Amino acid sequence: MAQFSLAIHGGAGTIEKHRMKADLEQAYRHALADALLAGKNILMAGGSSVDAVVAAVVSMEDNPLFNAGRGSVLTHDEMVEMDAAVMNGKDLNAGALCGVRHIKNPIVLARDIMTGSSHVMLSGDGAEKFAFNEAGHVYTEQDYFFTERRYDQLLDAKSTGRAALSESTFPDDKKHGTVGAVALDASGNLAAATSTGGLTNKRYGRIGDTPIIGAGTYARNGNCAVSATGMGEVLLRCTVASDISGRMRYGNQSLKDACHNVVNGEIKGLGGECGVVAVDAEGQVHFSLNCPGMYRGTLDTHGEPLVAIYDTDTLTPVNQ
C-alpha cells in the first residue's frame, strides 16, 4: 500500500487548447499544484485524509480561476449560491450543504456539519445559521465572491436566456465548474471532497450532484473515494460515485475499469460530459473523462505535483 495518495480536479468539459494563452495555462497549472501541496502537507505530517481533501479544496475555493468559493458563478439574481460535500471512508460519515451565500469556504462548513452536527446535509439559511451560531464561521459579504469574469459570463448567459456551465470569454467556454479531491492517508483511510458554485444564470435554488452523497462525492474504506465533475443533472440521475464504488464492491472491477465504464458508458450515452478523480484502497489514482479536458493533478512517487489539462495530456511537473 502507498504511504498516502492524493488527487484533485478543477472541473471538466470543453477546454480549448487553441484559445488558451500560455500565461493562463501556467496559472491553472500552478493553482492545481498549490492545491496538491496544501493536501500533501497534511498527509506528510500524518494528518487524516479528510483534512487533506478539505485543505486541497480550500486552496481551489480561494482561487478565482475555479468555480467554487471565491470564483463561483452568479445566479440569475446576481448572487452566489454554493454547494459542497465531504465524506470520510473510515466510518461513512459525511457532511454536505447546498445553496449557501455567505460562507467563504463551503467545504470547511461541510466538514463542520459532518463532525459537529447529527445531520448529513443542511441547506440555505439553515446551513448558514449552523455555520455562524455553532461552527464559528464568519459572515462573508457577497462582494467577496464578485468578479468581473463571472458577471460578464452571467450577462452572456442572460442574453441568450440560458443557464450555462460555461465561461463566456475564457478558453474553457464549456467547462463544467466543480473542484474536488480524493485521498488515502497513512492509516489507510479514504476521503473525498467536492465544492461548486453551480450553474451560471441558475434559478429556483437549483442543486446539482456535488453535495449529494453517492452522486458527486463518495468514500468507503477498503473500496474507493470518488469526486465527480460535469453535467450535474446527468451525474445525479446516474449516481456516478456510488456506481463506481458498487462496480468495485460487487462486480470486482478494478478502479480503472469501474471509472472508465461509468464515465464512458451510460453517462456518455445520455450526452453527459463529465470526469471523475478516484483513488482505491491501495492508493492507486485514476482519472476518467469523456470530454476534451479536465483540470487535474496528483503526486508522483516523490510527492511532487503532476498536473494535466487536456484529454490527450499526460501528467507532467508544473513548469513543463
From TrEMBL:
<dbReference type="InterPro" id="IPR000246">
    <property type="entry name" value="Peptidase_T2"/>
</dbReference>
<dbReference type="InterPro" id="IPR029055">
    <property type="entry name" value="Ntn_hydrolases_N"/>
</dbReference>
<dbReference type="GO" id="GO:0016811">
    <property type="term" value="F:hydrolase activity, acting on carbon-nitrogen (but not peptide) bonds, in linear amides"/>
</dbReference>
<protein>
    <recommendedName>
        <fullName>Isoaspartyl peptidase</fullName>
    </recommendedName>
</protein>
<feature type="binding site">
    <location>
        <begin position="229"/>
        <end position="232"/>
    </location>
    <ligand>
        <name>substrate</name>
    </ligand>
</feature>
<feature type="active site" description="Nucleophile">
    <location>
        <position position="178"/>
    </location>
</feature>
<keyword id="KW-0068">Autocatalytic cleavage</keyword>
<keyword id="KW-0378">Hydrolase</keyword>
<dbReference type="Pfam" id="PF01112">
    <property type="entry name" value="Asparaginase_2"/>
</dbReference>
<dbReference type="GO" id="GO:0008233">
    <property type="term" value="F:peptidase activity"/>
</dbReference>
<dbReference type="GO" id="GO:0006508">
    <property type="term" value="P:proteolysis"/>
</dbReference>
<keyword id="KW-0645">Protease</keyword>
<feature type="binding site">
    <location>
        <begin position="206"/>
        <end position="209"/>
    </location>
    <ligand>
        <name>substrate</name>
    </ligand>
</feature>
<feature type="site" description="Cleavage; by autolysis">
    <location>
        <begin position="177"/>
        <end position="178"/>
    </location>
</feature>
